[in-house]
Amino acid sequence: MMDGAAAEPLAAIFRRLIANTGPISLMHYMGESNARYYTSRDPLGSAGDFITAPEISQMFGELIGLWLADMWINAGRETPVHYVELGPGRGTLAKDALRTARRYGLEPSIHFVEASTALKDIQLETVPGAQWHHDLSTIPAYGPVLIVANEFLDALPVRQLVKTPQGWRERMVVPEGDRFVCIAGQQPMDAAVPEARRGAADGTIIETCPGAAATVYEVAGRLMEQGGAALFIDYGHDQLRDGSTLQAVRQHLKADPFVSPGEADLTAHVDFAALAPIAQSRGCKWLGTVPQGRWLRELGIETRAQALAQVAPEHAAAIHSARDRLIGEGQMGLLFKVMGLAHPNWPGGAGFHG
Ligand code: SAH
């Protein structure tokens, strides 16, 4: 495990790089910052910087396991079958999902796509049988894949273009005092902006995430070649919109993304509206993009919460408050979305109808 405190601060590395070669793109800044951030620590949980749905309650992973088992059974119980998780964090979601799936006879091989060496060590303890991959290219090429990504796409670097009086430019990063700021780049970027949006007012920002687009493209390709289904769960929007959504979180509070790069988690809203057509362009079935609260309710989170509370009445209040965090409209229920994809011969999937 790399010791983040002993390494040269990323801010100093950026300053030197920019002094030598000029401004760096915001996408470069975000990518390097998160690579440093994730590989130098465990960011999850109450002692860390943020909490994710699987860390809030076992119900989250269990219902995902149930969804995957239901899909696999209705598609004909084909084996070998592979569970693939992108950015599995502490491995909690996989542990809960696979425990549930096993009860329905689904016992897939387990594959984690993870960049962080610090998190890999924790994942090994949580899910001993898992195999690690740097990217999707090395996961098995035969047998259906059941792919899950929770709060993975939001960590991938975004590119921002800004409309200036001189035309569209990429947003670049330079130091200013003891922090960093964004400026408009020198290179004309008009060709990268769709025709329909080129005439936007000065100051308009368009944000895209090439890494998210590439991930969904690759996942959809795997689903078409091997069969299977995928769930992408993240906070984001399902309508086209303008503006920067870049944000930083540190110790459970919003932080400034342009101070102390590599020390806070940088994320951006996932543009689900852009991702569904990418999957469909490969022939994949888009099951829908629905609010997390609705999806979990349709999968039976209320019943599951009651059952857990009955077994452990002393934890009933905590179980119900965790359920509310996951599905409450002012909490994660509306902002977080679940996007489902599947091979066209696979079922429509629970939670995406109605
Ligand atoms: N899914 C987990 C963790 C979310 S945090 C949960 O819900 O709790 C984001 C995860 O994605 C971390 O595991 C992080 O190390 C991983 N990650 C971020 N960028 C990555 C990249 N480019 N390639 C692979 N993994 C990445």
Notes on the structure:
The chain is 35% helix and 23% strand. It is an alpha/beta fold and 354 residues long. Strands 2, 3, 4, 5, 10, 14, 15 and 16 form an 8-stranded mixed β-sheet that branches. α7 (210-226) packs parallel to α8 (272-280). The longest helix is centred in the first third of the chain and has 17 residues, at 58-74. The model has no long low-confidence stretch (mean pLDDT 95). It binds S-adenosyl-L-homocysteine. S-adenosyl-L-homocysteine (SAH) binds next to α2 and α3.
Concise structural overview:
The chain has 354 residues and is of the alpha/beta class.
Shape: globular
Helix residue percentage = 25-40%
Tally the beta strands: 16
Strand content: 15-25%
Determine Rg (CA atoms, Å). Answer: 21 Å
String of helices and strands = HEHHHEHEHEEEEEEHEEEEEHEHHHE
* Uncertain stretches: none
Number of helices: 11
Q: What is the residue-averaged pLDDT?
A: 95
The distinct ligands, each listed once, are: S-adenosyl-L-homocysteine
**What structural class should be given to the helix and strand makeup?**
alpha/beta
**Termini, distance in Å?**
47 Å
Largest sheet: 8 strands, mixed
